[in-house]
Specification:
By secondary structure, the protein is of the alpha+beta class. It has a domain of about 120 residues: Cytidine Deaminase, domain 2 (3-Layer(aba) Sandwich), CATH 3.40.140. A five-stranded mixed sheet has the order 2-1-3-4-5, with helices on both faces. The longest helix has about 30 residues. It is globular. It starts with about 25 loop residues before the first helix and ends with a helix.
Length: about 180
Amino acid sequence: MKELPEARIYLKNNGEELLYDGEKIEEVNGACDVILKSIKDLDRECAVVLSLSTKLKPLNYNKISIGTEYNVTIPIKNVFKPAILDNASYIIFFHNHPDEEIPYPSRSDIALIRKLIRAGNLLNIKIIDNFIAGGKGFHRLGKEIIDEMNKDLDKEDKLAEEQFIDKFEEKILSID
């Protein structure tokens, strides 16, 4: 029988354990602190999702993607898979910018959050916050901006839905 050895790739993090604190974290802020600390000094971009219960209690975290020092590919389905399996009601999304001390969201970061909010709304799993970690700090979108994004997307979706229904209603009714 032939064997194929498994290659194991680890993130460089100054030799520290990534997310082990020794005690169970019961509050969102504590979970966010641990995750931010674990990704801020990585040498590559990494995306993490924190699944939360209906009472906003942390259920678990999942590293959903590891990229290069400049970007990370984040398939939308990978963001929500752990939340679905956890039966989560909410998620918080994290990623890092290894080349920035104090990171700010790029246009592609904002576009990604838009997609995540839209997908979360379809799945009934709400995005409640987004953090971007850097070497000396982090940027947080916060509930107010996420809520405002949600309202704008709701308006877009209602208009698009009406246009979609109008277009296909005519076509369906015109079929003999």
